[in-house]
Design brief:
By secondary structure, this protein is α+β, with helices and mostly antiparallel strands. The chain folds into two domains: about 80 residues, Alpha-Beta Plaits; about 90 residues, bacterial protein sp0830 like (Alpha-Beta Plaits). About 35% of the residues lie in helices and about 25% in strands. It is built from six helices and eight strands; from the N terminus they run βαββαβαβαββαβα. The protein has a four-stranded antiparallel β-sheet, with helices on both faces. Strands 6-7-5-8 form a four-stranded antiparallel β-sheet.
Amino acid sequence: MKYCAFLRGVNVKGTNMKMADVCQVFKDSGMENVSSILASGNIVFSSKKNADELKQILEKAMSDYFSYEAFLFVKSQEETENFWKGNPFEKNDELHIYSFVGNDGIEKVLMKEFENALKSENEKGEIVNNIFYWQVSKGNTLDSTFGKILGKKSLKDQFTSRNINTFEKILKKMN
């Protein structure tokens, strides 16, 4: 079974790690056909175990090896494809589109936060098939009210986000 692990908080705020080291931790934990996509913590691999087991095994291995509290989300190839296919927004060079990978129900929490946030021009949020998508003008990601909410400590182990283009690169590697 092919999976993608989406690591949270990799190579930001002092949590720096080489993807080669991350891949080695995955291999040492019994994963096969391990490779990384970009330096933002996207690891494609194969395993016979289920996603819940893999999350526990890999979070512990990553935490032990890198001495930090690891959070990651494991999605099957089919689930990973859904993030790409469900994108409700039209591609536009002036905009970023993000998709959020996380715990069950996180899309509702994110939508509530988004609805309560001040919006900039072209900023939109939408849920498609239990996945939250966010469109924001390039250069406004971290400055937007919603972007600042995403850094709340209370949400840190609930989700991670990726630019929609990252899913395209991941899927090319999985196929």
